[in-house]
Amino acid sequence: MTDTTAPATGGPLTAGPDRSIHCRELVRIYTSEDVEVQALQGLELDVVSGELVALVGASGSGKSTLLGILSGLDRPTAGSATVAGVDLTAMTRKSRLHYHRRVVGFVWQQTERNLVPYLTIEDNVLLAMQIGGTRDRAGRLATLVDLLDLGDVLDRRPGEVSGGQRQRAAVAVGLANEPSVLLADEPTGELDESTSAQLLETLRTVNHETGTTTLIVTHDATVSEHVGRTVRIRDGRTSTETLRSTTTGTTPDGEPQEFALVDRAGRLQLPQEYVDRLGLQDRVRLAMRPDHVGVYRGDDGQTTAPAAPLSAADDRTEHDDA
Ligand code: ADP
Ligand code: MG
Q: Cβ(57) to ligand 1 under 6 A?
């Protein structure tokens, strides 16, 4: 492990408008009666302007909680969050309104939240622009129809189109007012596999053509095939990430490269797959090397047979730990 800093993402260096996302030690504790749930436990996340990032994690890992905070509807218990230069912990009522209308767009997990059922898709998009105060609505509508291929369904209601068309319409509503940042919570949650893949490719095209910073939250691990960077969230903390860019973060044979995120206290989470394969538990032995840190089973693998061949066994040392 030679490089423990945040990996280069291949995204553009911040120039022009700030469309970045920064979360520092984000904590969100829900308290109801005498039960306390720590939904976010010191989450760190950086997304540069114009980047497309997928945030993946099991159900209950804190994804929607994070998007609730980034959307400005919920507040963190501790820590900081900045989106497009706006400090979300210090918003006035007025700046919050401006933030919702102009700075961020959403595709919500609850599909009924994205589109008004009794309005046509065209009227849904126009309504979003009216609320957001976009002036050239006809021009913007034409751009969105083109970008999201909505020409055939404009005069239909959300209940009268396919799931994929409905989600593209939801994306059009999210982008109606040219937001700096698009947040999408499980946008493919109700789509079949091939329609999901199509929607993700659409989001990639939109990101590429508009430069809108896009954060897609999902429990579907196959999303990483469609984005440059996938960040995993576990127990309310970002744990590992996969880079798939053409230059940085790719091994010579073109395989995506795995990274773990080290927080300020030096904590990192090993990928569950590594833990399972090497049978790591309770206490592991660390070995400091000139250019990396070795992590070994605390019992040195001698009590039970290893679950799989230890591929990183080349620099194992002989001495025991305890
Ligand atoms: P995800 O979107 O990854 O499935 P959530 O952010 O919805 O996860 O939830 C994270 C954790 O916080 C879960 O344990 C969930 O039960 C809890 N949680 C979410 N919202 C609330 C709430 N309003 N009150 C209490 N607990 C909540
Ligand atoms: Mg969720």
A: yes
| pLDDT reading at 312 higher than 50 | no
Single-letter code of the amino acid located at 316: R
Centre of ligand 1 to C-alpha 61, Å, is: 8
Where exactly are the structural domains of the chain? 21-240
**Does any ligand 1 atom lie closer than 6 A to the CB of residue 218?**
no
**Of the bound ligands, which one is closest to the alpha carbon of residue 66?**
1
Highest-confidence segment of 2-6, 290-294, 310-314: 290-294
**What is the 234 CA–ligand 1 centroid distance (Å)?**
13
57 Cα nearest atom in ligand 1? 3
pLDDT in tens, 194-223: 999 999 999 999 999 999 999 999 988 888
b/e per residue 143-171 (b: at least 16 CB within 10 A): bbbebbebeebbebbbeebebbbbbbbbb
CATH topology of domain 21-240: Rossmann fold (3.40.50)
How many DSSP H helices and E strands does the chain contain?
A: 7, 13
Who's near 112: CB < 8 A, 6+ residues apart? none
H helices of 135-192, where? 137-148, 163-175
Q: Return the ligand number nearest the Cα of 237.
A: 1
The tens digit of pLDDT for each residue in 28-61 reads 999 988 889 999 999 999 999 999 999 999 899 9
